[in-house]
Amino acid sequence: MLIETKSAATHEIEVPDDTVEASRPQRSHRARRYRPRRTLSDRVRDALMVMAEGQAQVLTHQEKPWASITFSGSRHELVLSFDGISACKIGEQFVADLPDHEFAIPGQLVADATITSVESNYTPDPRMAVTAVLLLLEDV
Questions:
Q1: What's the domain count of the chain?
Q2: Which of 121, 137, 126, 135 is nearest to 78 (CA)?
Q3: Is this structure's pTM higher than 0.70?
Q4: Residue 115 within any structural domain of the chain
Q5: 19 part of a folded domain
Q6: For residue 59, what are the domain limits?
Q7: What does DSSP assign to residue 7?
Q8: Tens of each residue's pLDDT in the chain, 140 residues
């Protein structure tokens, strides 16, 4: 039963505190976290970082839409940096493996994966910069 009191001077209704708390909707203890949707660019970067065994840094990533009469997709150009002796060894293996690598990107087929440039500098600190270009087609 709800008991209300009304003040004659202010014309305000006073409601007991326990009634206000009971009328609020109960929230669950688990709040839903906002998780941003992963884009195609995120998936491409993740796939390349797996190939690079986490030893590379993505310096730049450019994505351009691509289409022909029968296909549509996107072209991705990435510059990866491998710093240190062990990272450079992994970078050399990355360069050798990329053209024949089988990618698993949902909804996409990697039609072509090439290395367009490799810049190496071993003095004073070993560093390798690799430019990779991937042509992706939408899998229908």
A1: 1
A2: 135
A3: yes
A4: yes
A5: no
A6: 40-138
A7: -
A8: 455 555 555 556 555 555 555 555 565 566 677 777 889 999 999 999 999 999 999 999 999 998 889 989 999 999 999 999 999 999 999 999 999 999 999 899 999 999 999 999 988 899 999 999 999 999 87
